[in-house]
Amino acid sequence: MSQPGIQISDLSVEFAGGDADPVTAVSGVSQEIDAHRFVSIVGPSGCGKSTLLNVVAGLQQPTAGSIMIDGKPVTGPDRRIGLVFQEDSTLPWKTTTDNVAFGMRILGVAKRDQQRRAQEMIDLVGLQGFEQSYPAMLSGGMRQRVALARTLAQQPSVLLMDEPFAALDQQTRILLGAEVRRIWRQTKQTVLFVTHDLSEAILMSQQVWVMSYRPGRIIDVIDVDLPDDRDASVVSTPAFNELQNRIWSTLQQEAMRGFVAESTAA
Ligand SMILES: Nc1ncnc2c1ncn2[C@@H]1O[C@H](COP(=O)(O)OP(=O)(O)OP(=O)(O)O)[C@@H](O)[C@H]1O
Predict the structure, then answer these.
(1) Cα(127) to centroid of ligand 1, in Å?
(2) Homologous superfamily assigned to 1-80+157-255
(3) Does residue 19 surpass a pLDDT of 80?
(4) Does a cis peptide bond (omega within 30 degrees of 0) precede residue 238?
C-alpha cells in the first residue's frame, strides 16, 4: 500500500503588495505525492512555483492551508527536507569532500560517519577522483553534483529542487537530469522538482503538474508513462514527444495569459 510522502492541503499564499495590490501567488492547491515518487511542477514565469516549493520546505508560511511530510506537519525548516537550488551553494574554500560533509557537520553526524557517507555520496553522483578539488576547479554541472551529494548525505526523506540546472547549458541539463533520475532510483526520496523546462520535467518525473499563471493553481496532472529505467535517449522517442505536446498545449495558453497580463501591467 502507498504511504503519504508530501500532502499539500488547500494551500494559498498571498504577498502584501506595499503600495501596490497584494499578490496571490498560490491559490487553493491540494495535491499529494506518495512516498518515493518523483513529481515535477512546470508553469509560466512568475506563476508561483518557487513559492509553492518554499512553503513545502517550511521556508515560507502559507496564508492558508497546510503541508504534511510523511504524515507529520511542516511548521518551519526541517531535517526531513533536503533542498537543492539554482544558485551555486558550494563553499569555494572547501574541497568536494568537505563541501559534501558540511551539512552533516551542522546536523552533528559523528566525524567517522561523515567521511564514510561523504565518500558514498561522491561515488553516487559520479565525482570519484575529484574529492580534493575546490569548486573553482569544477564545472557548473559538477558543482551542482556536489550540492546534490551534500543534500543527499543528510539523508532527507524528501528532496525539493528549484531549477537546479537552470544555469547550465541544454546538453548538460539533459545529461544531469538523467543522472539525477538514476540516483533517485537508488535513493528513493520523495521528490518535488520545479522547472521551466518541459523536457527536463518529462525526462525525470513519474508525474508532471502544470501550474496556471497567477494566481497559481494546479490545472493539469499528467502521468509520465515512460520506461522506469529510461536514460537521456528517451527525449527522441515518439512517446516523449507526445507527452511534450500534450503538456505544452495547456502550458502555452497559460504562458500567453501571463505574457498579456505582464505586458498590460508594464
Ligand atoms: N517575497 C515576496 N514578496 C512579494 N511578492 C513575491 C515574493 N515572492 C514572490 N512574489 C511574487 O509572487 C509571484 C510568484 O513568484 P514565484 O517566484 O513563486 O514564481 P515562479 O513561478 O517560481 O517564477 P519563475 O518561474 O520566474 O522563477 C510573483 O508575482 C512574485 O513577484
Answers:
(1) 34
(2) P-loop containing nucleotide triphosphate hydrolases (3.40.50.300)
(3) no
(4) no
